[in-house]
Each structure stands twice: as structure tokens, then as C-alpha cells.
Amino acid sequence: MAVPLGAAVALVALLSGVAGEWGLYGPGGPGAGWVAAATLAPAAATCGSGPDLPAGWGQDPHAGMVRVPAGQIVLGQQGAYADERPAGAPQDVTTFWMDRTEVTNAQFAAFVQATGYRTQAEREGAAAVFQARPPGQGGHSSAGAPAAPGTAGEQVPNWWHWRAGASWRQPEGPGSDLRGRAQHPVVHVTLADALAYARWLGRDLPTEAEWEHAARAGGQPETLTREPRDPQGRPLANYWQGVFPDLNTQEDGYAALAPAGCFAANGYGLYDLIGNVWELTRDAYQGPHQPHGQGDLSALRRPPVPGRTVVIKGGSFLCAASYCQRYRAAARHPHEPDMPTSHVGFRTVLRG
């Protein structure tokens, strides 16, 4: 299958938090046998069992949403990655409504059923799927990895694969489906796909300031070294626990995506703003990028194409204390707007 040129270039420049992120799929997905055995956390056994669609869906314009109060915010934090340094004067954020959770497969399916919409991955026939390396392929170097299409032989890390047939309906590609995943965050959606869904509901995607204001919930930025854990040491979000990328202890109960809303809400009643999937915003990424080291795909694009990336927020199930520490409200990363991946999703906002 011919890979579209734009998608091939985007794959080489896959900046969506891949700098230092490796991970494994959950049960049935690629690499499922390579994670450390662990007892599921209590939340894993009980969440994801409610109704597929929020109460009032189709009648209430605020169905599944939480009112976020107005406030002021200075984006970023000191002592973190270079592109997170506080940015200028405080910004005013007016009151708005935000999805309580990431948009789920069930919600996106309702949109598709009503409109006949086909995502970019479905139209182009492929998406970027994460697959862990088998045991014995340790180390952080990308040496020996296959070249991505259209890269003139450049070596890229071999944990991302441009997989024919992968889409939101088949997250790991042909043979996978959404059974048991109705309440998982929808993935393999591009910026255009997310905006199409939002506009169908009369909504929008959040700005970076709105997203970070909602994620902080009136609090201060987390320190770079602090994992999201409760006072008893239990994970408060779906992120990587263990020695990254070689051992995932799954203290949070998940090797990959978790159903939306399985961890405690923040002070505004919003779930999973940290971890699970990176979340799209509508803002173009303008700031500098802080490489994580070997395996940073951003190094393959010199220089980055201006205006070609948008800000994503919150980190994903691939973020770990041992390497990528982006499970924080201030964390940000550039992402190709037309790149469907298995660790990026979104939520919507309604202003006014």
C-alpha cells in the first residue's frame, strides 16, 4: 500500500510524546505477553461498566460536561522541560464547559453513525500504531530499526509502525476491534477528525490555556520529579510504572489504555486529564522543544516545519518517571495535526 507523502513525513516527525516513550499494548494487543505480571488495581475491575453515553446525550448541550470556573493562569512551570517555562503575564480564562472525560469510542461511534463521517486514517488506510520491542532488543538506540516510508533510508525507532488498516475502529490494525472498549478513549483521530466531532455537537477543542487551567483545578503545577500518586502511593492516573521501557509493573491495572474515568477526578470534577492519552488542543505549537535523548524522532526533522504542529497536553499511558515525565498539567508537546496515533485522543469544550 502506498503511504501518503504527508503521512510518511509526519511519521518520521512523530513528535507526539514519543521522545523517550515506549510501552506495551494491553490484553490481546501487540506485546501483551511482554509486560510484567501484576494484580489489577481495584478500579480496573469496576470502571467502564456504566452506560456508554452520558445522561442527556442528544438533548442536553452540556451532556457529559463539567462547568469550569473563570480564572487566571500563567502557562508552564519552572524546573521542568525547556518548553514549559512560564510564559509571560497571567492569561484570563472565562467560564466554559469541558467534557468530563476524554471522548470515548461510544461517543465517537454515535457521531459516525449520525453523519457517516470517515476519519483520515480510514480514508488513507493506515495509522501509526505503537508496538513494543521483543525481549532482547533492549537499549534506547534506534540503530537497526527499519526506515519509515519516504525517509530516504534514515533510521527511526522501531516501536512505531505505519500499519495498514489501523483506525479508531481497529486500534491495533486488522484483527482488532472495539469489543469491550466502548468506554476507552477514541484514538487514531487527527485534528480535523476531532474538530468535526466537536462541531457536530456545537463545541470546540480547548485552547492550551483552557486545558491547563482546567487540569490544574486551582492548584499549582506539579514538580517534575513527583509521580501522580495518592498519599498511600497508589497511582492516580494511567501512566507507566516500573523501569521504562523494560518493565511495566501495571500498578495502575493497565498495560495500555484504560476506560475513561477510572481514576479519581480533579478538583473541578474532570477525569484523566493526566495520563491515558495525550489530548489535542486547537493551539499551534510555537515553543522550543526539549529532546529527551536517543530515540527522539523530532531530531529527524531539521528544522521543524513552522505551523505544522499543534499542542497536545497531559501525557499518555506511555509516560514514565524513569524517562518521560509529562504526566503533568504544565506538560506540553508538539503533534502533527494530520497524524493518527494510538496514544492521542481529545475532549471538547463549550464556551458561553
From TrEMBL:
Name under which the protein is recorded: Formylglycine-generating enzyme family protein
Ranges where the Sulfatase-modifying factor enzyme-like domain occurs: 63-349
GO molecular function: formylglycine-generating oxidase activity
Pfam families xrefs: FGE-sulfatase
Residue spans of biased composition, Low complexity class: 142-153
Organism superkingdom: Bacteria
Transmembrane segments: none
Residue ranges, annotated region (Disordered): 132-153
